[in-house]
Design goal:
By secondary structure, this protein is mainly beta. The protein has one domain (about 30-660): TonB-dependent receptor, beta-barrel domain (Maltoporin, Chain A), CATH 2.40.170.20. The longest helix is centred in the first third of the chain and has 14 residues, at about 15-25. The chain is globular, with a radius of gyration of 25 Å.
Length: about 650
């Protein structure tokens, strides 16, 4: 097997000296538990979700301003802030870390709660930390709705229709060979609440066909039962205040039904990058989580987190590909001390996590243990605030140090200046995707005759980033903010497929290798304006600009897959109580995918043209808001929308939702 030689690094450079000095300053500091870092923060509330008319957790990414998102089929969404760590952001549900990792996809539709149970989302882009976990790609925190007193029940039905489909549009100008109906989707929940105990359980169903011509062309030999997705999420939550403090148990499951075991068969069609095609799997996600806090006195408390997650993928027995299988088990325990008084707050603690991968393709199981010490200290002095966070971990024989130092100054209400410097290191072993497990002995690619090459030793990626944010309240109804970021990336890695001459036939092996030692500098600019025109009308304008400043070929090629420009305008109008109108206009500039292997196809292209999308929604509540309806029209101007060169095209779609709360 061919090996890629690592570059020899200079023994001294000003840039490395600056990083070393920063590391020393953080290293000699007190270990303190990291809270939420500076980043670019966005809060999405329950009303924002309801007014937008979305029905699936995966669709939440369309509401996130700072991330770029794309989809191949309209069901599974890839999202992130950085092409070198796309989909490596962290996901929390009620402060429980979830590992919804399917290959390189963080599959939000496998979230074991329905969209109606979500109370709010908090998203931070860029270097972020929360509860001892650090990510250079950002963090998404999902919080479920409070459980009301007494017994209550909830049910929801929704269905989607795309106007470019056959069926009712067979003899109109919208006729095309596309899917006819998406759904029905449904969700049910039952809850009980008392003074000391609150319990909630629920179930749901997603149905999504994937018969777009662009996708069908890649797998025209698949049986009909593999042309659709059926996903079933289940969950159980219990919270008690009977013991000292508050403690919560969460049990979750989401999975697809094997095609052989249902009258209306389906599977989970996961896109497998090395083959550039969808592969049908019976996928499953299981999670057990126990968390809580124990107060010691008014200023100190102990918090703990225990979890076990399992992600599994089983290939149905067919002759299309080998009978692939995959299972990832994660077990973690974390404990920390938390303190808070008038001038200082912070925490310190430690955790241990064990990852285990199992497969029939593995000669032996792969086990990775990660130990961590972490901490945070925040000082408040009048209008000034300083914060230091540190995270030291050891994984797969590598020692990593992450941290940030921030300063903020509040001049008056709504006017502030914040500055931060952050240092992040990510081990290749922490990148939970197919490439890492290939290095550890996963022989899947060799079995598929796909040559794979990578270095024996891949250095930990290093990020050094400077952020500066200014917020200004123009008046009581208009607020604006501007954030600039300068990011220096070193020793990044990137999977590549490459060929010489004409693209080969789909059955021809294509060499794959991990490109390493990728370095470069990137500049980000974000600006937003929020306007509360009246009590019933609000609008939000957002713009983002990204530009690589380095000339490295792979570095620039990777960033071309993210749009340089993104513009978003959001309107929310409630003319009368119980009825409202919502709209979102999104424009993104052209993206290019020069590193993507293109299979011979009349639909193949390495460029996704700039596009704009207008989504409109109306919502109406009845019966003292117990009965809620919404109608969402996506791509109301019926533009040709494509998010990815190998993905489907999306026409105007109509999404109807009906929910009842008893």
């Amino acid at each position: 097997m061919a090996k890629i030689q690592l570059k020899k690094h200079q023994l001294f450079s000003p840039r490395k000296l600056l990083r070393s000095l920063l590391a020393v300053l953080i290293f000699i500091s007190i270990w303190i538990f990291p809270g939420e870092s500076f980043g670019q923060r966005q809060v999405i509330k329950e009303d924002d979700i309801a007014h937008a008319g979305i029905t699936r957790p995966g669709d939440l990414v369309a509401l996130i301003e700072g991330w770029h998102h794309y989809s191949l089929d309209g069901y599974r969404w890839y999202a992130g802030d950085d092409p070198f760590s796309s989909n490596q952001w962290l996901l929390f549900l009620d402060d429980q870390l979830l590992a919804l990792d399917f290959f390189n996809l963080r599959h939000l539709n496998a979230l074991p709660v329905s969209i109606e149970q979500i109370d709010s989302l908090v998203i931070t882009t860029g270097p972020s930390a929360w509860q001892g976990e650090y990510s250079d790609a950002g963090i998404m925190r999902i919080y479920t709705r409070p459980i009301p007193d007494g017994i209550s029940a909830f049910a929801r039905y929704s269905s989607i229709n795309e106007t470019g489909d056959p069926g009712p549009y067979q003899y109109t100008r919208f006729r095309s060979d596309n899917v006819d109906e998406i759904g029905p989707d449904y969700a049910v929940a039952l809850s009980y609440g008392s003074e000391k105990l609150r319990v909630r359980s629920g179930a749901g169903h997603h149905f999504h066909p994937a018969t777009d011509p662009v996708i069908s062309e890649r797998r025209n030999n698949y049986p009909q039962r593999f042309q659709r997705v059926q996903m079933y999420p289940l969950f159980f939550q219990a919270t008690t205040d009977a013991l000292p403090g508050r403690h919560q148990l969460f049990l979750g499951y989401a999975g697809s039904i094997p095609p052989e075991n249902t009258e209306k068969p389906g599977s989970d069609l996961l896109f497998f990058d090395p083959l550039n095609t969808e592969v049908p799997f019976h996928s499953g996600f299981r999670h057990f989580g126990l968390s809580g806090n124990i107060p010691l006195n008014p200023h100190w408390q102990i918090i703990y987190r225990l979890r076990q997650s399992q992600t599994s993928m089983e290939k149905p027995a067919t002759d299309i590909f080998a009978d692939l299988d995959w299972q990832m088990d994660i077990r973690s325990a974390k404990v920390a001390m938390v303190f808070n008084d008038i001038s200082f707050s912070g925490n310190f603690g430690g955790s241990i996590t064990e990852n285990q991968a199992e497969s029939r393709w593995l000669s032996n199981n792969v086990n990775i243990t990660k130990s961590k010490f972490f901490g945070r200290l925040q000082r408040r002095n009048g209008r000034d605030q300083q914060e230091l966070s540190v995270n030291f971990s050891r994984i797969d024989g590598q020692s990593l140090l992450n941290g940030f130092l921030s300063y903020s100054r509040h001049f008056s209400a709504g006017n502030s200046l914040k500055a931060q410097i952050s240092l992040a290191r990510q081990a290749f072993a922490a990148d939970n995707n197919i490439w890492y497990w290939s290095q550890k002995g996963y022989s899947l690619l060799e079995a598929l005759d796909l040559p794979l090459s990578f270095p024996d030793d891949i250095s930990a990626r290093r990020d050094l980033q400077f952020d500066l944010q200014f917020q200004k309240a123009i008046n009581a109804n208009i607020q604006g903010e501007v954030t600039t970021s300068l990011q220096q990336i070193s020793d990044a890695w990137f999977p590549r497929q490459h060929f010489h001459g004409d693209p080969p036939a789909p059955s021809t092996p294509v060499p794959i290798h991990i490109a390493t030692d990728i370095s470069g500098t990137n500049f980000h600019l974000q600006a937003g304006l929020r306007h509360q025109l009246s009590k019933r009308f609000r609008q939000r304008l957002y713009y983002r600009f990204r530009q690589p400043l380095s000339d490295g070929e792979i570095f620039r090629d990777a960033w071309e897959t993210f749009p340089i420009h993104k513009l978003l305008l959001k309107l929310d109008y409630t003319p009368v109580e119980g009825f409202g109108l919502w709209g979102q206009f999104t424009w993104t500039s052209e993206t290019n995918w020069p590193l993507l292997l293109q299979l011979p196809s009349e639909n193949a292209t390495t460029t996704v043209e700039s596009n704009f999308q207008l989504d409109l929604a109306a919502h109406k509540n009845f019966w003292q808001q117990r009965l809620r309806t919404s109608l969402l029209v996506k791509n109301a101007l019926n533009q040709t929308i494509r998010y990815h060169p190998l993905g489907a095209t999306f026409d105007l779609s109509i999404i109807f939702k009906l929910a009842i709360q008893l």
